[in-house]
Amino acid sequence: MNSKTQNIIPQQVIEDASEWAIMHGVAFRQADNTAKHCPFSIAPMTMEREVYEHLRNVTPIITKLINNVSEDHDFLQHSLRDVAKADPFFERLLSLHHQAHGDSANRHAAARKPLLLMRTDFMDDRQHGAKVIEFNGIAAGMAPFGQRASEFHAYMQTQWPDTYQNWVADPQSTPAINHGLTQLAYGIAQAGQKVKAAFAEQGKPTFLMVVQENEDNVYDQHLLEVELQKQGLRTVRRTFKQLSSQLSTGADKRLILENVGAIDVVYLRAGYQYSDYCAPKLNEPVCCHTLSQTRLFIEQHHVAVNATFSQQLATSKTMQMLLTTMPAKEYARWGLSLHEANLVKSVLADMKPVNPSSIDWFNNQADKQTWVLKNQGEGGGHCVFGEDISQKLSQLRPQEYDAWALMMRLFPHEREKPTIGVRDTEQSQIDDLVSEIGLFTAFYDGEPVTEFDGYAGYLIRSKPASENEGGIHSGQGILDSLTLTNS
């Protein structure tokens, strides 16, 4: 990591900034129940306004596409059956989807109402421009941290103007407005009110967040809950294990939670990996059956759900590859005009399936440093780079190929000026920082539900260019924000 650790900024400034982060909930819970501030950049990155506006315009169209793909159940079942044979978790998801919706000969509508809360992650490649890294349709969190990072840099600009001006990438740039927390909550509130109204009930809608046991990312989650409470919702938290014995069915497929009552919105911050459904004490003959059936039970009720099985399948790496390799005109199947389809195509990076032909091509013709190998996993740690790809491909059995995809590796612009990263109240100068921008969107039952036509704000995560894993939670990433330049 290209960094220097001497104190360049007065420690008083670093401590004040770190305390601001803790005080505003920008933190992770530790094993001993203390809080540690999230690592952050002392001043924001820059992006050309034209690039940002393009992403801002195209991302809700991507969400419209993904929403409509996710409700095309025949397409999901047909196009993803091979990857289900190659990946046990994917097989379980597709099986649950089949239980929820039937098959093409006996299709039935699940009672759940789809609430698509999506984060589409981009990198601004030096050569190819801004391109999608991945779609996140389940547990797509950190909108609260994204908004807080923008607020933090505004605080730095006011409270420590000399520090801010010294380290901001371009002192003439303008902060990009970020309402990620408030708009995501607004979209959820809209969905909750509509479900409540469908039952002609009075009172506050109730929001259920499904969480992992011993979750350390609770502050990002609680920030969303506090904002939802401000917007008139009651919020509760449960694990799948708790829900397995606490849910029941009310009149007209109303979802009822023990000692709480009717539920209007279910938001999954768990469910993207096998371990979220694992309950060893149940001693199940089929691993994870009970808790995954709990998720199916939720979808069989009239409740707004993010993420549905359909949404999780539609935002998978395999679906990203299928949409990338598909001609733009085929997007018409899901309600996109050719203009909209071409806008989506403009931000999709090249992808290739893994098969004997592509393996031969990769080993003998490809520039290996310009590709990344991905499986279906969510979160960090699921990518293979460079020369390691050939070794990994040689280890895969043919029946595993469909669980993997090759994707063009993105090389984003390095920040023109060094910056200061702060981790554990310690500062370090980073000379080769690169950034990833995630744009949030919210659609309910196929329609945008934010005050900005479905767009809801952004999250910036930056990392040293020399590091492959850029997650803030699991990697060398730091929280950042965005300013715009006209150059």
From TrEMBL:
Pathway: Sulfur metabolism; glutathione biosynthesis; glutathione from L-cysteine and L-glutamate: step 2/2. Its EC number is 6.3.2.3. Residues 206-314 form the Glutathione synthase substrate-binding domain. SUPFAM superfamilies: Glutathione synthetase ATP-binding domain-like, PreATP-grasp domain. Keywords: ATP-binding, Glutathione biosynthesis, Ligase, Magnesium, Metal-binding, Nucleotide-binding. InterPro entries: Glutathione_synthase (IPR005615), Glutathione_synthase_a-hlx (IPR014042), Glutathione_synthase_C_euk (IPR014709), Glutathione_synthase_N_euk (IPR014049), GSH-S_sub-bd_sf (IPR037013), GSH_synth_subst-bd (IPR004887), PreATP-grasp_dom_sf (IPR016185). Its cofactor is Mg(2+). It comes from the Bacteria. Belongs to the eukaryotic GSH synthase family. This is glutathione synthase. It comes from Shewanella electrodiphila.
